[in-house]
Amino acid sequence: MGRGLSPLQRQILLLAQDNRDNGRTGDNGIDLYHREVYAAVYGFPTLWGDVRKVGPGTQNFSRNSIGPRVYDSAVSAVSRAMRRLEGRGLISLHSGLISHWSGAQLTEEGHQVAIGLVLGRPAPDSTDSANGSVSSRAGSDLTDTADS
Hints:
Blueprint: H1 7-21, E1 32-33, H2 34-40, H3 63-66, H4 68-87, E2 91-96, E3 101-106, H5 108-118
């Protein structure tokens, strides 16, 4: 964990904070669903429009139309980034066992780090190499390598 947050981890925190700031936290307290990251960061086209306006377990993407390799790579990168954020105590992960959804809730520390990123402050980093700037759309080649 000695390295800073990856661009994907920063984007996840910023998206979760944006949802929280704009009253888009789910009834279950979820600040960000994995599917929102696929749409916002990777630009995956949705089947039903706004991913926040359909039920948490609704199928939102066509793996075949996106391409199995691209889709699976994004799912792996997002899952890895979320687990690493949870390991740092910045989010808590939640999932629906029956309806098959996954999401995250910012912890208090995660909220503070996300606010810092919004304000342009670098994320906490034991090696002092992180920079908090992230574009609003990071692109499809985004992977999670900060904590490798």
